[in-house]
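Below is a filled-in request sheet from our internal design queue. Each sheet records the structural input a requester submitted and the sequence that came back. We keep these sheets so that new team members can see what a complete request looks like end to end.

REQUESTER: design group, bay 2
PRIORITY: normal
MODE: inverse folding
CHAIN LENGTH: 82
BACKBONE (tokenized):
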């Protein structure tokens, strides 16, 4: 068994991007960069390709991976554009 211990939390930031599928890997695309996200989190949130999602990334922007925090419903997106 592997046991991991978080020594200290790192600074994080919350950003919004679009969910895409690159081959078999889900990614969230921002203006400058794309981040890999786990398939399990995409299915947990019932996200679909093209959805806007909020992700948590390190504040220093050193990671290739992100954690999905939430999916922004399409109704909310349509209300903002009206």
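RETURNED SEQUENCE:
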């Amino acid at each position: 068994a592997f046991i991991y211990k978080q020594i200290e939390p790192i600074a994080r930031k919350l950003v919004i991007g679009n969910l895409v599928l690159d081959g078999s890997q889900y990614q969230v695309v921002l203006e400058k960069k794309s981040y890999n996200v786990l398939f399990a989190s995409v299915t947990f949130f019932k996200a679909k390709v093209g959805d806007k999602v909020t992700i948590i990334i390190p504040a220093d922007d050193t990671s290739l991976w992100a954690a999905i925090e939430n999916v922004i419903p399409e109704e909310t997106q349509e209300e903002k554009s009206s």
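SHEET NOTES:
- The longest strand covers residues 12-22.
- The chain has a mean pLDDT of 90.
FILED BY: M.R.
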